[in-house]
Specification:
single chain; alpha+beta; 5-stranded antiparallel sheet; 2 helices; globular
C-alpha cells in the first residue's frame, strides 16, 4: 500500500522529471498537484480503485500508480515522452 507521504514524494519527483514548476500539497480534498494554470486532485478510493484523479471538473478512477501518473501528466498538459524500446529493434546509444 502506498502512503500519502510516499505518493506526494513521487508526484514531486515527477514534476521535476517532467520539467514543470509546480507544487504538491496535502489538503482535505486530497493531494493537490498544481503547475501553472493546471490543477489535479488525487484522493484515495475504495478497493479495487486505488485512487481518484480530478482534473478540469472531471473525476475518474485509477487502479495503479502507472495509471495515476498518466492521468496526472495528461491533466497537467505534459507532452508524452519518448517510449523506451527493449529487445529486438532497440537502439543502443
Amino acid at each position: 500500500m502506498t502512503t500519502d507521504a510516499e505518493l506526494r514524494s513521487l508526484l514531486v519527483d515527477c514534476l521535476k522529471v517532467w520539467d514543470l514548476e509546480g507544487r504538491v500539497t496535502a489538503e482535505n480534498a486530497g493531494l493537490v498537484v498544481a503547475a501553472g494554470e493546471a490543477t489535479c486532485v488525487v484522493r484515495a478510493g475504495p478497493a479495487p480503485t486505488r485512487w481518484f484523479v480530478t482534473t478540469g471538473g472531471r473525476t475518474r478512477p485509477v487502479p495503479s500508480v502507472v495509471a495515476l501518473l498518466s492521468a496526472v501528466r495528461r491533466g497537467l498538459g505534459v507532452a508524452p515522452g519518448v517510449r523506451a524500446r527493449v529487445g529486438v529493434g532497440a537502439v543502443v546509444q
